[in-house]
Amino acid sequence: MKDANSVLSSYSTTVFEVMSQLAMEHDAINLGQGFPDEDGPLELRKIAADALIEGPNQYPSMMGLPELRKAIADHDKRFYGISLDWKTEVMVTSGATEALSNCLFGLIEPGDEVVVLEPFYDCYLPLIKRAGGIPVVVRMSAPDWKLPVEELDEALTQDTKLIIINSPMNPTGKAFHWDELEALAELCLRYDIYAVCDEVYEHQIYDGREHYPLITLPGMRDRTVRIGSAGKSFALTGWKVGYICAAPELLAPISKAHQFTTFTTPPNLQKAVAAGLAKDQSYFNNLTADLQKKRDYLASGLAEIGFDVLKSDGTFFITADFSKLYKGGDEKFCHYITTEAKVAAVPVSVFYDVEGPNNLVRFCFSKRIEVLEEALKRLKKAFS
């Protein structure tokens, strides 16, 4: 038989699925895959359930329900001062991964260079390559994950079409500072490139910091694509409702990729997300405060056991150095704690294109406190 697609066939099953399956096999607490262990607001789930029964359940607009697109535009105006025309600058997608896929298939031609900052979320490189792009990787380094401006400048060329920015950043928890965003904007303008901004953790940023979308910086309004995720903002990751905000000239080709991928997203879920985005400030404040409390609890417990815990500005994740506790690579370490301590984590090396550090693991803290407490007890016992 003829070979399947060489790009996608070259990748193994995503590490999140692998570690989750291993966790189930060994009855381990899963701090590997990044999802909350409690469903989101009951009122949103009721809206979705009622809309499913009441209907309609036929194709909604390809661009998304008008009420959700209006809610997205209102949300971005309220939080960031971004003025969007919901009719021409907002599109709903079946999750943020589809949104990213649409951006790459809609904006790049075969042979275009796409810059990504490493470590990166695992879908970035496969999607770039499948779209015909050439990934150019610029590495960030622990423990502070500072933006390497000089290296980034050297990586950009006349063949660069766009750069992917993830802030807050999975897996590192890094949220870019204002001066770093200014440097990114200056490079985008100087090299005349697009910026695709994966901002799904925009409401998971801690210690009193604010999220600053790159699209708000001078000169970036017409060359930036902003991606958001209702799954992250409302602890409803299984719903797979994402969205894209961009100038009409950018959104038009992106929407063609969406048209030939999923075309649309379940209308009942869209209706519920619209209600969620209209929630008052207290909801988002409480979400942030609750997750920060969990982050601090897990970080403190891991440090007490002997991990060197790296700073996490945002997301659901903490990165920790285990080298004082275990001599071996991060994949072996994750296998060990899953099978022996009954706690699953994700090796950070999988977020690198070529060999990266093998002494770091990523823990997810978006779990109930009692679950984090039990996980820490098991780890403490394993390394006592």
TrEMBL record:
CDD domains tied to this protein: AAT_like
All residue ranges annotated as the Aminotransferase class I/classII large domain in the record: 27-379
Single annotated GO MF: transaminase activity
Alphabetical keyword list: Aminotransferase, Pyridoxal phosphate, Transferase
Pfam families membership: Aminotran_1_2
Coiled coil location: none
Signal peptide annotation: none
Cofactor(s) required for function per UniProt: pyridoxal 5'-phosphate
Gene3D superfamilies given in the database record: Aspartate Aminotransferase, domain 1 (3.90.1150.10), Type I PLP-dependent aspartate aminotransferase-like (Major domain) (3.40.640.10)
Domain of life, per lineage: Bacteria
Alphabetized InterPro entries for the sequence: Aminotransferase_I/II_large (IPR004839), Kynurenine-oxoglutarate_AT (IPR051326), PyrdxlP-dep_Trfase (IPR015424), PyrdxlP-dep_Trfase_major (IPR015421), PyrdxlP-dep_Trfase_small (IPR015422)
PANTHER family the UniProt entry points to: FI04487P
NCBIfam families: PRK08912.1
UniProt-recorded name of the protein: Aminotransferase
Lineage of producing organism: Bacteria, Pseudomonadati, Pseudomonadota, Alphaproteobacteria, Rhodospirillales
